[in-house]
Amino acid sequence: MSKIIEVTDLSLPGLEVYTRLTEAQLRSRLEPEKGVFIAESPKVIGTALDAGLEPVSLLMERRHVEGQARGIIARCGEIPVYAAGGSLLEGLTGYRLTRGVLCAMRRPRPHGVEEVCAGKRRIAVLENIVDATNIGAIFRSAAALGMDAVLVTPGCCDPLNRRAVRVSMGAVFQVPWTCIGSESPDWPQPGILSLQRLGFKTAAMALSDASVGIDAPQLQEEEKLAIVLGAEGDGLAPRTIAACDYSVRIPMSHNVDSLNVAAASAVAFWQLRGR
């Protein structure tokens, strides 16, 4: 049974993952194999547990111990459960707990690109998307609209960033994903070459004179397709577009030049999901 620990001040051992460590520090935790991330809300935490992820500790408003977090506590086994009033927790963490419950969890073992892509037909590749909200929204769309996996380039926001996890509503635990390369020179080459060796045609979502419409029949006919989405503002790098098999555009009306990358991803995933 979990041990309930009353929180009174910042010096309480075990609270540093919630109060003092940056996202980068959470990822490495001095040693990569000890990296953690934070999941927020009973629904998201439950999805992570369903995916087999390991909880380290819980932090919650005291009223949730016998309330909405009761089932989560029961599932987490003998881990510390830190509890306090809502106003104190906001002071400790620096933000209001949207659903009153946080869980520190072990980062999952990283997977290789070949492992993640094995047997997949439709995948998304995210190039240098740095906004955590966009990453979370794209993962949610990927889960809902038929993407089999997601690959992120080294310049992307970490999909296990606290905000990305929350915005995705736990989809980051449902869609297989991994990094395509560990350093910036790994993308677009040799990353795109590795996808092509795995049998994927690559479709760069980009506005250009050479683009085909998103409803082009040949896109639907591709057995394996990787949909490549670019960073906020500038979009995909020119060398990425040049290296892809297709350049694909979403037709716009009313002089709108483009959609936010999260909105564009939802349109692209639905249209290109395959039959």
From TrEMBL:
Keyword Translocase: no
Record keyword Methyltransferase present: yes
GO biological process: methylation
Annotated signal sequence range: none
tRNA/rRNA methyltransferase SpoU type domain mapped to chain residues: 123-269
GO MF assignments: methyltransferase activity
Annotated keywords: Methyltransferase, Transferase
One Pfam family in the UniProt entry: SpoU_methylase
Protein name in the entry: RNA methyltransferase
Organism: Neglectibacter timonensis
